[in-house]
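Troubleshooting: if your tokenizer reports a length mismatch, compare your output against this known-good record of 178 residues.
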Amino acid sequence: MNPDMTSTLESLEYIPYLNEVGETTEQFSGKVGVYAIFDHAKTLQFIGYSRDVSLSLKQHLVRQPEQCYWLKVQTIDRPSRTILEEIRGAWITENGSTPVGNDTDEALWNQPIDAKLKMTAAEQAAYAATDEMGKIKTLKQVARRIEAEVLADLEARGVKMAIRFDPKLKEEGLLNLK
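Known-good structure output:
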């Protein structure tokens, strides 16, 4: 794709984040592209790019369910980080300001959910007072508790698709889609 043929953010149609059966669209599965995510009021929250737009959209939904209501997507035929970054930059410029998800909240959009940050005082005490195996067990318990909260939030948001987190990362207290 010629970078001069990229679409402006304004010219792209809004696509509902979830379809009528509570799943993300599969039309971008395996597609390379840039995407913009909007909240319920169609306020731009995040602009990203990916080698598999569909997979990235699922990750963002899990991490920020209340911010993911609408999206706009520009796919390209061949992976090119330069072109993807140019499109993202042009969209941010067109928006007039950097979306919060590309600024102060970037880690919330791009990094696995860190259950360690949500440990209760009792969990912190149990973690501090045990050996390495005990620490792993505590982290897995915390990750499972946070996973249940995330799944409840997604269900409340109307998500019906199966969500599976990487079990190995739970040992580190992290939640990321498998």
